[in-house]
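Follow-up to my post from last week.
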Amino acid sequence: MTAKTILSRPVYGTLSPQPGKHHLFIADAEGAAAILDMANSAPAGFFADAHIMFVPGATGTKYVEPLKKLQPAQFYEGPSIASALPRLRQTLATAHMGLRVYLSGTEGLIGQAMQAALEAGIDHTSIQTEQRGSLARRVQCVHCKGITENVTTQPATCSHCGLLLLVRDHYSRRIAAFQGVCINAEDPTENPPKEEIFR
Amino acid sequence: MSAGTSKIDVTVTDIVPVNELVKRFHFRRTDGAILPTFSGGAHVVVEMRDDDRTRLNPYSLMSSPLDTTDYTISVRRDDVGRGGSLFMHNRVKPGQRMVISNPVNLFSLDLRARKHLMIAGGIGITPFMAQTSQLAGEGGNFELHYTCRSEALGTYADVLQARYGRRIHLYHDDRDEKLPLEKLLSSQPLGTHLYICGPAGMIDWVRRTASEAGWPSETVHYEHFAAPQPGKPFDVTLAVSGKQIRVGEQQSLLEAIEAAGVDPPYLCRGGVCGQCETNVVSYDGKFLHNDHWLSEEEHRSGCKIMPCVSRFEGKSLVLER
Ligand code: FES
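User reply:
Got it. Predicted complex:
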């Protein structure tokens, strides 16, 4: 669980089965374990109407078989979040009311899948989320607007313009990223040491 | 005193019988100015001065929000109610001056929706008249399903069909036409919002079916003004103002408090807005809760009452007013 610091900092819960006609799960890495845990309390036959989209990342094959054992109506395994997103948008574009969305794994996955769901007209409060695994952040540099994925340090270097950024808790749901602000604008020779804090 | 609403002096410019049970009333500002802007789903509270008593009843505005030269409401005659609708039907005449509140909207459209699915029952059609006008003006995507007892009592069904054609779907009880609710709810595109106005039983049915079909509560909007029910007279002590009052058989608790010169806040006078929520200091007896505002737990606690629609039976009731 992440602590609530400022209002825009997302807070995540624990996945739980919702009433609905179809259930769409999007998870990366350890996020699979959140689905497997939820499956223990799901009513019989729940996954017969489910579609699981999974990006294993560093977990390799560890979770693939256990997820398939849930016998979802559809199972998709993708090499990266970026490659799963077009498929997610396509699924949402043709979906009907009664579809429930469950997101689990890293904040980057949850944020980007959430962004696609919001664009499809789903209210963010009706989406189930659970954070698992790495705490790495997706950060947008407020200066060049470039997005840096998998940021684990504070401060962090912008992968686009090279500025040294203070990673804030200020979060944009619209762009699914935390805000990064230049930490040494007054004196660029000042170089605070990087600490690995988002693990 | 009504929280956040001020009064408007209006003149009744026209009264149109719509069918056997429904009359439409047109109001303009007596001073000739433009009426306040409102959005579809808003209501006004109409003051009815009937000899020695004043009734204040909420009615949905049904005219187009795009035109504020006049406001129109439609009133269905209720022969067994507390007399508000009978007063409007029998005593109000064209040219008469009346007082209404500023509009308040407790049933507004969520304009983030991709599509608006509306379900009306009977006279519950009125807020949708304004909402459809508003959406049509903006090119909004909507569909209205309207159940009524018979063609003759399908208030404004003809007007709506002429305006919006196939976006309007009618179901007549006397022809045994049923609203295919489950099918309807499962075929809506993602991002649809649902709006319901009609009898309490219909609202419950639609809300329950939608929730079982996986519609998140944020996407389900409904409005049901509870009419204050008549009941046995009862006595109340108002602790703050130090008054003893008696609530008459045909009076609501809120009306009795107002008659004693105390002005609690209100907006809807129909048990839905929460404005009139009043703390109970002590009681000996039982509450007759009629509101849609307090939770069941709060109803059981005996700590709160909504005086616009709820009553009491028993030995004593002390309120923090
Ligand atoms: S005035 Fe709205 S609940 Fe009583």
